[in-house]
Amino acid sequence: MTVEGVGSGKDFKLWPGGGREWDWNETNTHHVPGIQPADVEELLTYGSEEIILSRGILLALYTCPETKELLEAKSIKYHIIETTQASELYNQLIEEGKAVGGLFHSTC
Fold it and tell me: By the 8 A CB rule, do 59 and 34 touch?
């Protein structure tokens, strides 16, 4: 994937006004059980008020129940969807002026 202002890579963390490559090793993330609460903390720190969690092209990446619970406890709207749809929704929300963040997994 190529992200304007961030560069090219396999997986990304994006937040309002910035982002970086997403290194799963930082939080010991695996396809199952999936996206960890620690994976979304950085998005929240940078002011994301709505979050997109992509599952990969083949929907192989899951999201831990604890991650959903964290977002719900903070009243953060979130979407768990396939990567192509996630990219489209992210761009749409940006155009609407929303403070959106996302975790994007480009493969599987």
Answer: no
Overall average pLDDT of the 80-88 stretch: 97
Spatial contact of 106 and 22, defined as CB atoms under 8 Å apart: no
Distance, CA of 20 to CA of 49 (rounded, Å):
18
Domains of the chain, by residue range, sit at 9-105
Name the nearest CA neighbour of 27 among 103, 78, 84: 103
pLDDT in tens, 27-60: 999 999 999 999 999 999 999 999 999 999 999 9
Q: In CATH, which superfamily holds the domain spanning 9-105? A: MTH938-like (3.40.1230.10)
Considering only the C-alpha atoms of the chain, give the largest distance between any 2 of them, rounded to a whole number of Å. 34
- Count other C-beta atoms under 10 Å from residue 10's C-beta: 13
Tokens of 92: 């749409």
